[in-house]
Target: Mannitol-1-phosphate 5-dehydrogenase
Amino acid sequence: MNPNIKTESAIKLNEASLARLASDVRIPQYDRHQIKNGIIHIGVGGFHRAHQALYLDDYLHQHPNSDWGICGVGLLEFDQRMRDALKSQDCLYTLVERSPESDNARVIGSITQYLFAPENRQAVIDTLAHPQCRIVTLTITEGGYYYIEGSGEFDVNHPTIQHDLQHPDQPIGVYGFLTAALDQRRQQGVAPFTVLSCDNLQGNGNIVKKMLTAFAELHDPELGRWIADHVAFPNCMVDRITPATTAADIEMVRNQFGIEDAFPVVAEPFLQWVIEDNFCAGRPELEAVGVQFTNDVHPYEMMKIRLLNASHLLIGYLGTLMGYSYVHEAMADQLIRQAVEQLMEEVTSTLQPVPGIDLDTYKKTLIERFANPKIRDQLPRLCFNSSAKLPKWVLSPLREKLQQGESIDYLSLMIASWFRYLNGLDDQKKPISIDDPMADALTQCAQAGGSDPSSLFGLSELFGDLPQSSRFVEAVTHHLRNLYDLGAKETLIGLLQVHQ
Model:
């Protein structure tokens, strides 16, 4: 580490400057110009760059001149910042792994090309349709799959879907691009690529198969059948806590490592990727760099989604209501920490045995990861797009607990905390910014209903038939009234005393 490096002497990151970087910064030792991009990744953000691209960077060090480089794709106008940063840096960027003990930096070289779809949609379709593309990976957020939680069906009426059905040559959504490219491949006699979702959805491969096939069938029934029969959709589980890049991160990379990087990424040391071994056009041997391949990802998915992701939501809502800004601050509050431990205990009975994993150790490790003060993960990131996350991560285990006749104290507390959070004011009467595609409808229901959750329960696309369970409704109503009348702190004190 170089704590005394001056900002003025920082080196602008690009291929030409790699050899001038400090010796403690690991750089690509392979010739990036000899790599072919067999993988196209849609949705290049912090997580992809700290996770999949890192694994591929490790792989390329072992297999130079490989066919498994990455071409990144941004579909949204929002992706313009990523395009500009990567373009100015030859697609290189700095990854800093931060533990309480140390910071370690390396430059990742596995992304060698980046396409910004709003600039040239046909270029993206042609690249996807090229025989060189053998795997398409996705991090498009839970809301990017157009999956109606209440029914499990495809959201065919979504404006993005309707646009792409009516303008197949000028798509804006992921299914429009994939369908156009697969149609081109089919017509040209080129075998299809594998579609690998890397988002936090239980059965993510099954979901993307169902949604993409439904879209393609509306475009052309024969194409839909061809996709269903020939495209592989492996399920996978991904894990690494990766906060959004901040101005402070950019400054840290500049000051500690002497690198001028427009868009570095910071992550915790922990890293995990479990993939169903189901590929239709080959794959890199990523087991050599720590990826676990299995015939059944389901137990790993459930473990991660129900223990880590669900806990993140509870931390986000309670921490925000109690006035905290960061995850590690919230976890330093013993009330929140104990509530998270109790939530994990509550959902454990819904998990299957996980090969090679001791669940008690895993839960203990999660608490330590959440408490890492170096990561500075912001609570709004955890709460972002909750209308897509909460139904997928929380309602399934809740239904199972109801069927088992077991306690739902902390699962129902989480839903009550979300409802209270949606009111838009924390316990100190400070405003909360609700960042959610359904924000208008959600906040209107929350503010109109107050401590009565019935208007929010009326959103059937989120809750389906769950509100028919009187035990569920009574539990959420009880917690919600306490959150309004007593505040989050006293609500937790009362609930935790019951469980002691």
Summary: The mean pLDDT is 96. The two ends are 46 Å apart (CA to CA). The CA atoms of residues 70 and 355 lie 30 Å apart. Residues 298-321 form the longest helix (24 residues).
